[in-house]
Amino acid sequence: MILNLEGNINRYYAQTLCMVFFPGATFGEKEERSDDVPEVTISVYNDKENNSETAYASIRLNDRVSEATETVSHDEEITFATHASIAVGRALFAAGKELLGHIPPWGILTGIRPAKVASGLLASGKGIFKTRRILRDEYFLNPQKAALATSVASNENKLMKKIKKNGCSIYISIPFCPSRCAYCSFVSSTTPRLLAMIDEYLDWIIEDLKTTVALIKKLDLPILSVYIGGGTPTTLNGKQLKRLLKEINAQIPMDQLYEFTLEAGRPDTITAEKLTIAKNYGVTRISVNPQTLNNDVLREIGRKHTTKDFYRAFRLAKKSGIRDINVDLIAGLPGDDFKSFSESVDKIIELEPTNITIHTFCVKKAADILKNNSNIYSIASADAAKGVSYSQLKAKFAGYKPYYMYRQKNTVGNLENVGFSREGHEGLYNIFMMEDMQTIFGIGASAVTKLVHRRDNDETVIERIFNPKYPYEYLRQKKGEVPTDTKKAFEERVTNFYAKI
């Protein structure tokens, strides 16, 4: 895609707006003009005489051109944006709608946290009905999405009032899987040679855990949740899992945790032995994720398990006595349709897990599936949109509430991912992470430490510290093969961050 900008416009923001209409678009500087390459031109200027911002947008595709101009008065109340960016969004929305005949369900809201604007409106005293109206009329959300964003924001706000302030969480990365799904872009090692490094990897994970907890104690931060993610943490065998969980119990006061999550994920890695170990060492939440209950689709996306495997794993999870079980489904998977997906939703709800997370299919550039299907993105997949709407209505009528939500670039239909739960069974770490509620200390390869401080005026200060991406890089660093005192540097950055606040 060719993107031409004039005026004070954030290029990344403009790109995300373009991707609402052109999922999967790339923005190479040397893109050559041709009929089938979209060209977007955006300009914005401040009209001081009329106290307003005016934006112009045009989209050219093949032999068609669509143009629109929008003006936003400085007197108009805007939340979490500038008047110029709202003018740009509205102009591009109008041009895209005219040219492509597509109305984006999330209007001009971009970014990973669509409930954030709703939360800000509620916090300013707008109320639920006025917040919905503003989202519909000023940000162009369709009524269902406006209601969803408002419900999520309202539920999050209620939950956070019950949580200790100034706490933190720990994320432990286990970046190993028994095999790689075709749509996956996470860092995960699957070959026998890489899986053979798990024991050594655990040595250093445990060492990092000890030093991280010691630092947290110095800072006098209560640890409120622990999340073991991946990859697939249950790729670990029983002995390895017990070793990790036992050390977590030794280092962290378990009685102060609101939640202890083990991301089991793949049904083909779940055994009664591992679940018993998890329960005995205080795990309160696990995931058993089929993604779909259609065996043909499972084969298409490279999942090495069947629907039968999922039911077996879910029964074991229920029998284990672990308090909360989450089940993931993905709408819009290749080969899936509305009938198949809605049947998966119905069957999962019949099982009555405490949590259900409905994702929308999203493919990142590193995913294997793009090598075989470059047209995987769809701007308005009717099946995916119907499936997402169906899942949300079905979950609501079954007594589940939406409690967290996020969006990704390049999702089918520009749709969202939503977590639903029974009352009192919400996955709190998801909210802590997505809404920047507290500091998250990341341990292991590809983990990110996100230092967070929320000031009294609701301004949030964030600093991120990235670990090496791959397990072998992480091990090289830990063994001193990389000439950097990373442990000392990490402690200094964290200490300095908290000293400044």
Protein architecture, described:
The model has no long low-confidence stretch (mean pLDDT 90). The strands form 3 sheets. A 9-stranded mixed sheet has the order 11-12-10-9-8-7-6-5-13, sandwiched between helices. A 4-stranded mixed sheet has the order 1-2-3-4. Strands 14-15 form a two-stranded antiparallel ribbon. It has 17 helices and 15 strands. Helix 12 links the parallel strand 9 and strand 10. It is globular, with a radius of gyration of 23 Å. The chain is α/β, with parallel strands linked by helices. Helix content is 40%, strand content 21%. Helix 7 runs parallel beside helix 8. It has 3 domains: 102 residues, Ribosome hibernation promotion factor-like (Double Stranded RNA Binding Domain, 2-Layer Sandwich), CATH 3.30.160.100; 43 residues, no CATH class; 281 residues, tm_1862 like domain (pyruvate-formate lyase- activating enzyme).
